[in-house]
Amino acid sequence: MIETKNLTKNYGNLTAVDNLNLTIKDGDIFGFIGPNGAGKTTTMRILVTLLEPFGGSAFINGLNVAKEGKKVRRLVGYMPDFMGVYDDLKVFEYLEFFAAAFGIERKKRKSIVEGVLELTDLESKKSATVDSLSRGMQQRLGLARVLIHDPKVLILDEPASGLDPRARIEIRELLRELKRMGKTIMISSHILSELEEICDHVGIIEHGRLVFSGTLEEIRPRLGIESKVRVSVADHQDKATELLSALPQVRQVQALGGEIAVTFHEGKNTAGIVARTLVNAGLDIISIQPERLKLDDAFLQLTKGVVH
Amino acid sequence: MTMALASTFSNLFDPVRLFGPIFDKELRVSSRRPRNYLLRFAYILLLSIFILSIWYSTLVMRSFGSAVYQISRLSSAGKQAISTIVWFQFIAAQLIAIVMLSSSISDEIHTGTLSVLLTTPISSFQIVTGKLLSKLLQLMLLLAISLPLLAIVRIFGGVTWDYIVSSICITMTAAVLMGTLSLLLSMIFRHAYNVIIVTILGYMLVFVALAGLFNMLAVKGIFIFDENVTQSILALINPFAAFAATNANLLQSGVPMFFSWPVHCLLMLVVTAVLIALAVWRVRKAALVSTFSSTTKLWPAEILERMLTRIFYKAGSKSPDSSIIPVTGPPIVWKEMRKGFVGHSRTDRIMTILLIVLFCLTAILLLLSPRNNIFSRYLILGLYWIVMIRIALFSAGSISGEKEARTWPVLLVTTLGDKEIIRGKAIAAIRRNIPLLLLYLVLICISYASFYNLGIRMFPQILISLLITAVSTVCSILFLAGIGVYFGVRLKTTTTAVAATVVSYLIMTYLFRIMFSVSWSILLSRFRGGSTIWIFYASSITYSLAMGGIGIYQMRCAVRRVRRDIF
Fold first, then answer.
1. Which CATH architecture has domain A2-220?
2. B317 touches chain A (CB under 8 A)
3. Side-chain-side CA neighbours of residue A13 (13 Å)
């Protein structure tokens, strides 16, 4: 588990992280979102012992990151936002070097390195020099390095930045696989739609303060956003509009061309209510689609100062 | 009418109009950089200390005899002092020109601004001359502010204005030539330190080693020209020989048959013009081909690397893929040693080949011409400095290089201890230079053996001197490795970390030497007789050990600071 208590970090007069309280449960994928300069990278650097906090404390699996640095480093795998690689090493050597740096016994290194190469699908590149790899492959190599000492917690600072769509999908699949392996993952990204697909929880940070932490569904009531369902029926659109308007959970019904937009007071099982009502009335449904709250929208609203 | 004429005239000779906006921009930027003011201050300070130390050693230390005798010695002391000062200026001006222009184009290439400049109407000529002249203007300023100091020393008498003017002209043309070469090389090599080392090595090879070789062949009568003609030709085409000839003129010893410094300066300016033309032709290509690729191969260096690895570096157990070397021993040392003794880049290989050629030429000069070994003495000194700069480069660069490549934070989140990281970097920096250090040791042994062959049969003294040289070299290595890792940890870029390390070494060597000569003279005045030589030995050892001690202390400071300036 990752936990921060009133975590604060100053750079001169600038407060990069301001009394940050954060909790990430074991086995979760936690999306850490915020505009540039919000304090995401600083928080991550404190968690991986690269920076000392100015105030407050941070814990990983109960270990204080400021006091028990070496034990924390054994538990954590960190991938920085701009990851450099040793361009004079081969892929296998690069990973074996980090295995040695994490104190893994020489006899075990080979099998471990081969294991992570297989997991990250880099087996065919093991004799290639690191600088000859494409950007996407270098990112995968970075993930392989992070996994070399089998850490319980992964802290990944924008792992998909600068990658093409294919490489991004590959990284996303890899993260899902790591979640299945039981890793706790804290991930920051500017590509919010990607976090939406893989994250269990998200935290939105602005000016060093956490403005929201929870699931995507929990953001909706917090923002006062209504839940909408779009439905289209084969015929009798007027009848369908009338039926749906009569429902007590529904606030507003609008006919938009061939579609009906239904706005609810609450956001639970809205599509089910609409479907049940129309089917019970003997109407044929062509399509029904609940309108999801996009993470980008939530991010924009939360970081515009709408919610304090 | 007069106003219009004046305006036309000033427009015609406006440097910004002549050399373009680059010249203007460089001057503006340089005036805002505190390091340029620091450089001027440091230069004047060093020159003042230098003059004071010469004054002290030539007049104060030898203040015996009557007043009339001492006054009669003033002119010879003046000659001695001024000749030493202009030598200092001659070497310092060239070094400063090389350093100032070493990153002039490579920085523009690396930041991508050169390509942008080339899309503007600014011509390649304006880019090259703008960069070159703006830096050389600063150098001229440095030489100009040292003129009053030279004028003061001239009061001693015995030094003609012709000597002052000729030495300054030779110094200026040599500095312009070396600066232009440095600028040209900065289009080829990415890092400033590589440009500096390659330029110095090239200079030593062409102007010292080859000149020494031709001179030796002429002396032995196996060259196409006789000794006098060879020396005259060398003095015309070689700044080092020209400067030596000018000094010989002053001190009335060994003047070449024919030597004209204006002709020499003109020739140097012609060579400079050719280099500028090359730079103008090359600058557009340089914007496209930014640096040497690491895959480029130079086969002699490949063979050498394999040979050295086999001799000095156990690769551990065999791997199924022969190109993969398993990690053995401390991981940091392994990783640094993986870069090889020669290095993987073409720059490293060019440097190694130049060094080997220089070592061979020096050995030939020492073996075949022990009596006339002024060139080999300078070469040994130069090679010693190159080896020391390499140690500084490997120790400081191995950490600051990781910061530049953004691998430093990744290394620090491993479970490796801070001490383990710093120790590994320092050990690897020394180990990677072992082949060169051994070659240097061979040269020193040849040099001492030639003394012995010359009939100076003082075997115990030679042995002790050899021992002191060995202790001094080891302590210097410790100092450089220690201070190198310290600056590597503290500073962000390799060029500044290496420069800080080398300058620290220079200052420490220089200041320690002055302190040593002062304490030596005090001791000499109190203990006259056989014990003085032992005081000299004891002082040398103490001075060396102090340097080594500082190096070890700095290494410990580096360990304490590892996690402070990570980003």
1. 3-Layer(aba) Sandwich (3.40)
2. no
3. 0
